[in-house]
Amino acid sequence: MLTGKIEKNQLLADDIFEMEIKYSNLSAKPGQFINVVCDGKLLPRPISVCQSKKESFVLVYKVVGEGTKWLSKRIKGSEIRFSPPLGRGFNLDIKNKKIAILGGGMGIAPILSVAQALDKADVFLGYNNDEFLHDKFPNKIYKSFASKGETVIDRFVNSKVGKSYDYVIACGPEGMLKALQQVCKEKNIPGQISIEQHMACGVGACLVCNCQTKHGYKLVCSDGPVFPIEEVVFND
């Protein structure tokens, strides 16, 4: 495990925190995650790297249990332990394409570094209520709010430029990704999606985080979390 120091740990929205950790050259690729040691009594928690800088990196996480609750109470200057970057991230070698990047809920955090690298892409952000991280995207942004009856997929499909995209990148809950997959199938749009899944070990040993694909079952932690959008088989 690696060790860094917390630079900040602040509330962004309802139960959603942003933590910056001082650690040089983590070199996480967009879409990768790390296992964070939250307490000696608990399994490490997998959290996507939101931004990887030269002298620090940023995590955005939601308090959903004892581990993330413990994490939310850490203060500036506290030491924290974590793994090196894990999993397969996004392939950003995408040239001469009109790209749409979609993030829903906590899936917004992993796509920030993607959007910053592909700053000409359009970004669709789906929230329940409170906005977060929207001011850090350098792209043209389209927002939607489930509390107002519009999903991020609705916004994408109904946008004036929606039919002109020829590549998508997305992260979000399964229902969102399943709906996007159907849209892309109908419009013959390729792309990549990052799957959200419960994990235990994070390195492919425990086989807990399996997902069905057209090529058999694969592990989200080691084969993913990023997969071609057409490869994943979602349950009905």
UniProtKB/TrEMBL annotation:
PANTHER family (UniProt xref): DIHYDROOROTATE DEHYDROGENASE B (NAD(+)), ELECTRON TRANSFER SUBUNIT, DIHYDROOROTATE DEHYDROGENASE B (NAD(+)), ELECTRON TRANSFER SUBUNIT-RELATED
Family note: Belongs to the PyrK family.
InterPro entries: Cyt_c3_hydrogenase_gsu (IPR012165), Dihydroorotate_DH_ele_sf (IPR037117), Dihydroorotate_DH_Fe-S-bd (IPR019480), FAD-bd_FR_type (IPR017927), FNR_nucleotide-bd (IPR039261), PyrK_electron_transfer (IPR050353), Riboflavin_synthase-like_b-brl (IPR017938)
The organism's place on the tree of life at top rank: Bacteria
Swiss-Prot/TrEMBL keywords: 2Fe-2S, Electron transport, FAD, Flavoprotein, Iron, Iron-sulfur, Metal-binding, Transport
The protein, known as: Dihydroorotate dehydrogenase electron transfer subunit
Biological processes per GO annotation: pyrimidine nucleotide biosynthetic process
PROSITE patterns for the chain: FAD_FR
Presence of the UniProt keyword Electron transport in the record: yes
GO molecular function: 2 iron, 2 sulfur cluster binding; flavin adenine dinucleotide binding; metal ion binding; oxidoreductase activity
Amino-acid positions noted as binding FAD in the UniProt annotation, renumbered to this chain: 45-48, 67-68
Pfam assignment, any one: DHODB_Fe-S_bind
Span of domain FAD-binding FR-type: 1-92
Cofactor(s), names only, from the UniProt record: FAD; [2Fe-2S] cluster
Species of the source: Proteinivorax hydrogeniformans
Binding site for [2Fe-2S] cluster: 201, 206, 209, 221
Membrane-crossing segments per the record: none
CDD domains documented for this protein: DHOD_e_trans
Cofactor info, note text: Binds 1 FAD per subunit.
